[in-house]
Amino acid sequence: MRHEAMRAALRRFAGLALFAVLVPGRLAAAPADDPARVGRWSAPLAWPVVAIHSSLLPNGKVLTWERKDSVLTTETHLWDPATGKFDKLINPYASVFCSGHTLMPDGTLLVAGGHHYRDGVGEKTSTFFNFKTSQWSKGQDMNDGRWYPTTCALSNGEVLVVGGSSGGGETVGMSPLPQVWKTGGGWRDLTSASGRIAEYYPWLLLGPDGKVFYAGPGTETPLLDTTGTGKWEDWRTSHYGYRDYGSAVMYEPGKVLIVGGGNPPTATAEVIDLNTGSDWRFTDPMKFARRQMNATLLADGTVLATGGTSSPGFNNAQGAVLAAELWSPATGSWTTLASMSVRRLYHSTAVLLPDGRVLSAGGGMPAADGGDTDHRDAQIYEPPYLFKGPRPVIKSAPESVTYGATFTVETQDAATIEDVTWVRLSSVTHAFDEGQRFNHLGFSRGAGGLTVTAPARPELSPPGYYMLFILNKAGVPSVAKMVRIAAAPAQAAMPDVEVLDQDGRKLHFYRDLIQGRTVAMNFVYTSCTAFCPLLGRTFTALQQALGDRLGKEVSLISVSTDPQTDTPERLKAWGAKFGARPGWTLVTGDRKNLDVLLQSLTGDPARRGEHSPAVLLGNYDQGKWVRESGLAAPERYLEILAGAGAASPAAPATRTAQGN
Fold first, then answer.
1. Is residue 327 classed as helix, strand or coil in its secondary structure?
2. What is the pLDDT confidence band of residue 78, given thresholds at 50, 70 and 90?
3. First to last CA, the chain
4. What's the average model confidence in pLDDT over 136-144?
5. Residue 564 — pLDDT band, cuts 50, 70, 90?
6. Which pLDDT score, from 0 to 100, does residue 624 have?
7. Can you tell me the distance from the alpha carbon of 577 to that of 146, in angstroms, rounded to the nearest whole number?
8. At 602, phi and psi to the nearest 5?
9. Are the beta carbons of 614 and 627 closer than 8 angstroms?
10. Which helix (H) or strand (E) is 595 found in, with range?
């Protein structure tokens, strides 16, 4: 055993030698190895600022800024990973160093508080960055200054802010009142929740019941009900102790990991499952103790730990940890990965990028004790999953989806896909990411694509933008597509325009075809050679599955998107190709009436050569109205129709989404 320990020490020494000139002192580093096992770090990249605050935006760019004590404005920089270029953008309204921030449902970055010339003195200001215009704007001031607050996106589209200080000192001058930014703008006060949590950068995570979970760094971990005037509820107590400058993530809905922190730093980690009401329990510890670290959710749901120091004290560079580590939720174990070449300690940040790599940047201001410097640089980490074979490719995905809806992801790699995930966009500072969330999504495979099911409700996945990844059997992720999830819009009135069926009979669309009925409706035109034959064959299978319930329990409707060409006769001939029986109505009519109808149902007027590949299903009058992918299997349609009171449910999809 002693000889094995000596050989292991020699291997560690060989790994350290590469970095000895760059980073002197006591360093923890991983041995050089195959990147498919440990990943790979880029060379350092020059950066215009110390990246104390970093947020990924829906356009794939990263907004970042540092501290400046002499002015109440902020020089922010927008980095484009595709080109490596930076744009300097001034926030003229506040110094937003030491603010809290997260993205709102429309992708706007909300920034709460900041720095009023000196440490501990917070700004009342709330400012907003619009990623579409690259412009800053100012909102209503908060009730008090906040320096080191945390923001948290809520399930209803609002944003909670808690903590931070308005004056100097560790306890005197803390901001005790939680506030919520309303969807219509302006702040509301949670007066009944005042005073329970009044500290620097609390770790706040939205739970699966819609309440906000305080995960640390303190040991008492209560829940906050943000409805009305707010209310804290006692929950559980974590085991280690105060984990200042450790980190926390919600790695699946309701499942939380807290790791590192403390003084002296700890390597311990704990997990809790809010879904079951269980207590905190220890999972495996990291290989290296760390404080001033970052924990980042990756595209496959594992958690990457980077940076930090193992030495006691506030920010001691002598114990800088260069090796990254990876935590597996499946096993609870940590794996040591490749080592960066630059220390990342206090005021460093880490952000998952849309291509699956991780940006690690910043550190300093002030520089760490032990001979460190301010780090106006960054490194890019490529996780091991990027070295395990070709990447699957997403050809297309919708820009937006609604809760519980299914949608089509077009890919030629459908047969090889083993997982579909999405990750909410990072917004990180001071060792905690206020933005990231992770979900496995249910899906089934089909020819040329996947049918994917969005999370069922916003408590599992707060509204906003997510990076959608597909992963193959080797665990290799695609480059992500940005997808926004939001609540379905309020149901519009169903047009009752006059139409013609395939027999030339005049009908009123709502009264004669929709009112009081459970229906499945697609959109076709007779000269279509792409989607329409597939839609026809799917409805053929659907009417076969319905049997004699067709026209009684469920009606099928096909609406022409080319009424100028599609006469009743043409529609009847088209329907005959697919064996349309009574109970399957094909609709055409006057162009103006069809424009009104299609605009309401699909968002587009009648246009030849263009139509929605969606299918509408359910009972409109009962409010059970679902938009489904036109590429879904008939069994999926039957499942939805069963929920509206007809037909039998389908078999389950290939994978069931966790937490849905």
1. strand
2. very high
3. 49
4. 95
5. very high
6. 78
7. 68
8. -120, -15
9. yes
10. helix 591-602
For residue 303, give the 3-state DSSP assignment: strand
Cα 184 from Cα 158, distance rounded (Å): 9
Helices 531-546 and 634-643 meet at what angle, rounded to 10? 60
Angle between helices 568-577 and 531-546 (to 10 degrees): 70
Q: Say if residues 247 and 432 touch (Cβ distance below 8 Å).
A: yes
Going across the sheet that includes 109-112, the strands are: 100-103, 109-112, 126-130, 135-138
β-strands 281-283, 62-65: how paired?
Answer: unpaired
Round to whole Å and give the CA distance between 139 and 181. Answer: 10
How many Å apart are CA 626 and CA 545, to the nearest integer?
20
Residue 625: what pLDDT?
Answer: 79
Four-CA torsion 467, 43, 363, 329, nearest 10 degrees: 40
Q: Is 139 helix (H, G, I), strand (E, B) or coil?
A: coil
Omega prior to 477 cis, within 30 of 0: no
Residue 20 tokens read as 């000895």
Query: What's residue 48's pLDDT?
Result: 98
φ, ψ of residue 649 in degrees (nearest 5): -70, 160
pLDDT (average), residues 580-590: 96
Which residue type does 2 have? R
Q: Are 536 and 542 in contact (CB under 8 A)?
A: no
Q: Say which residue, 497 or 622, is predicted with more confidence.
A: 497
Show the DSSP H helices in 269-384 as ranges. Answer: none
Sorted by sequence, the CB contacts under 8 Å of residue 17 that are 6+ apart come out as: none
Structure tokens at 437: 């969330």
Phi then psi dihedrals of residue 251, to 5 deg? -85, -15
Whether pLDDT at 413 is above 60: yes
Report which residue type is found at 358: V
- How many alpha carbons lie under 13 Å from residue 209 in its C-beta half-sphere? 14
Q: What is the rounded distance in angstroms from the CA atom of residue 142 to the CA atom of residue 516?
A: 50
pLDDT in tens, 165-219: 987 544 458 899 999 999 888 999 999 999 999 899 999 999 999 999 999 999 9
Q: Residue by residue, what is the 3-state secondary structure of 531-584?
A: HHHHHHHHHHHHHHHHHHHECCCEEEEEEECCCCCCCHHHHHHHHHHCCCCCCE
